[in-house]
Amino acid sequence: MSGTMRLTDDAIRAALTPAADVRAPVGLASAIRVAIDATPQRRRGVIGWAPSRRTRLALQLVAVGLLLLGLLAGVLLVGSHLTPTPPPSVTTYRGGPERTGVMPGPGPIGTPRVEWSVGVKGPVGAGSPVVQDGVVYVGDESGYVSAIEEATGTILWQLDVGAAINSGLSVADGLVIVGDDNGVIHALTAVGGAETWHHQTGGPVHSSSAVIDSVVYAASLDGNLYALDLATGTLHWPAPVATSGAVSRGIAVANGVIYAGSGGATATDAGALGAYDAATGARLWTAPLQPGNTSTPMVADGKVFVSGGLDGPAEATHLLYAFDAVTGQAVWPASFSVPTGDMLLPGAVADGQVFAESIDGSLYVLDAASGSKFWTAPMQATLSPSGGVVGGVFYATSDDRKIHAFDIANHTETWAILVKGVPSAPAIVDGRIIVGTGLGQVVSVAGTNPAPGAGTTR
Amino acid sequence: MAQRAEGLVPARDGALLERAASGDRDAFDLLIRPRLDRLYRMAVSITRSETDARDATQDACVLAWRELPRLRDRDKFDAWLSQILVNAARGVVRKTGRVRVRELSTEADADGGNPRAEPSVAAETDSFADSNAIQRAFGRLDGTTRALLTLHYVEGTPLAEIARATGSPVGTVKWRLSNARRALEKALEAERR
User: Fold this and answer.
1) What is the predicted pLDDT for the residue at B14?
2) Which residue of A has its CA nearest to B86?
């Protein structure tokens, strides 16, 4: 192809479309047949790496040995009159079921640098890292869950759950909970990654799960919320969400109430925020939102923060709302929107401030009480819809492959660091910021000064 | 624009699918052959290399054969197959080291100020780009970004379908597509320097 043209949709299409006469080469079908003849089908169990019986036995023995060692260590600690402090954890998307983005930290101390990076099986997006007991768990779009040693980046185990993972993981009571695109919610053992139970829903699971009091809460694109027993996977209840639309982003759980946004992708899809009794699934209240998709709700200080609108730039004004968490009444005089009306997603709320990122390329910080704008920071790229707050620092990731740190008090960007691939939502713990990336990496950014407890393997 | 063969599989294919999922290699062969050109073209779009496209297509077909018994919703076979192909092509791009994205240093970016104030390629009224430049710029992108642009611009796949195939909310797909296009523009700018 030749000639000049503007970089329009048509130009991109013309440049990228193979010539019409491109056909599969002669012999490819035969080569595929030969390869298939030599390839057995997989028919049971969790697909992906399939350890032999001997390997499984060895792994089980190792797991039992580790358990015994752990018990021994515990006994020794008690025996020496030391009080073991539970290691800080980031057990679910945005640091907790309230989805505030507040992380245990600390963040990197000193000059940030890439401490380690390790390749996983596929791009990491919504299956962003969680951390517990010195192990990072992450889900990727190739369908693998990876367990990685937090201190070194060493992969401990990987398991293919059978479909892409586009939802946030949770880890609790020795189990890793993950939903996949085949609509299956899996419970894997944190040690070894063996599947303990799974539950089939009616649609892909794109909503980050939450675990409270040994109950797993999850949502599916089939339009239902689910409550499952953590230990057994037994269904406590399913409940339809407020509208016919899907729950495509995370749910939040706080004070015995589940908050779920639902909606669709067109102007005729009603958006809504629903509050549901966590014990029964009964709907408590519903608040209408802009037509279109809704963000992951955040719950803090008795309020629920959520945005809604059509996600394409300038298709319709995107609004950020605050509702009373008990009554569902709007608490701001007016919903907030950016000047262009572009997509706006709240990423964190802390210390009376809401941190929201817009596709217009700016970070907006609002007064959580009134919805008025405190300050804004222009960015060199759009931020991702998730951040993390530790102390007086707001951490965010952006689509130009950076992790940023903002000094909240001074309204300034303190530093930014480049990583390989667009970073996912962060987990910030033990002096590290741990992200997955769109290039299939899991990256730990740490400071030049070690944080207390960092660099050790638990 | 290429015609897509997505959607519900025809009844005849449904029977072939059942046989193939039960281990019938001939049935799988009959399923794949009419789809091979489309898969290969998609692979060429993403990898920009006939050799890589051949590898990706073969990898995808073998993987599809291996995992077919685990496909729960047989009606979604074509979308599932396309996704496997996309993943395979991304994997080949990654393995062959054809990702040539120029990483900008943090310092350089910080010095660059707010690029929103700078005219983007798309915004420049006198910006022109020929197909070769766009193709070279495309070659600088990572496999995931290439796959998304290919699905949207070459395959004409509706956003809702990409969302289903990639397992993302439609809004996220739009977001990623917007970012992918911006990445292409940046790569094109880099090509022209």
Assistant:
1) 84
2) A142
pTM over 0.80: no
Q: How many CA atoms lie within 13 A of A110 on its CB side?
A: 13
Q: Are B7 and B78 in contact (CB under 8 A)?
A: yes
B-contacting residues in A 298-357 (Cβ below 8 Å): 310-313, 343
Nearest to A311 among B65, B174, B188 (CB): B174
Query: pLDDT band for position A315 (50/70/90)?
Result: low
Residue with token string 């693998």: A144
B129: chain A residues, CB-CB within 8 Å: 4-7, 11
Q: Give the C-alpha separation, A74 to B108, whole Å.
A: 50
Asked if A26 has any chain B CB less than 8 Å from its own CB, the reply is: no
Domain covering B11-95 assigned CATH 1.10.1740.10 in the classification: yes
- Sort A213 into a burial class: Cβ within 10 Å, 0-12 / 13-18 / 19+: exposed
Superfamily of segment(s) A85-449: YVTN repeat-like/Quinoprotein amine dehydrogenase (2.130.10.10)
Closest by Cβ to A380, choosing from B32, B114, B159: B114
| Residues of chain B found within 8 Å of residue A25, distances taken between Cβ atoms | 40, 50, 54
- Taking only the tens place, the pLDDT of each residue in B95-137 is 665 433 332 222 223 233 232 223 333 333 233 457 778 888 8
CB-CB under 8 Å, A39 with B66: yes
On the question of pLDDT at A313 being above 60, the answer is no
The amino acid at A56: R
Contact B114/A at CB under 8 A? yes
Which residue from A minimizes the CA distance to B32?
A29
How big is the CA angle at A135 (ends B84 and A112), to the nearest 5 degrees? 95
Q: Three-state SS across A293-336?
A: EECCCEEECCEEEEEEECCCCCCCCCEEEEEECCCCCECCCCCE
- Give the model's confidence band at B5: pLDDT under 50 very low, under 70 low, under 90 confident, else very high: very low
DSSP secondary structure of A331-370: -SSS-B--TT---EEEEEEETTEEEEEETTSEEEEEETTT
Domain with CATH 1.10.1740.10 in chain B: 11-95
| Minimum Cα–Cα distance from B51: chain A residue | A25
What is the reported pLDDT for B142?
77
Query: Where do we find the tokens 């709907």?
Result: A283
What dihedral angle (degrees, nearest 10) is formed by the CA atoms of A231, A232, A234, A237?
10
A246 closest CA partner among B163, B29, B88, B127: B163
CATH code at B121-192: 1.10.10.10
User: A42: number of CA atoms within 13 Å, CB side?
Assistant: 18
Tell me which residue of A447, A437, A429 sits closest to A89, measured CA to CA: A429
User: Does residue A69 contact residue A361 with C-beta atoms inside 8 Å?
Assistant: no
- Asked if A139 and A145 count as a contact pair (C-beta separation under 8 A), the reply is yes
Q: Do A265 and B70 touch (CB under 8 A)?
A: no
User: For B49-100, how does the pLDDT look when each residue is reduced to its tens digit (9 = 90+)?
Assistant: 888 899 999 989 998 998 888 777 777 788 778 878 887 887 777 666 543 3
For chain B, how long is the longest CA-to-CA vector? 61
Question: Which chain A residue shows the shortest CA-CA distance from B142?
Answer: A439
Q: Where are the domains of chain A?
A: 42-84, 85-449
Spatial distance between the Cα atoms of A143 and B178, rounded to a whole number of angstroms = 25
The whole-number pLDDT of residue A56 equals 56
Query: Do A252 and A274 contact (CB within 8 A), yes or no?
Result: no
**CATH code 1.10.10.10 region(s) in chain B:** 121-192
Please give the interface size between A and B, counted as residue pairs whose CB atoms are below 8 Å apart.
224
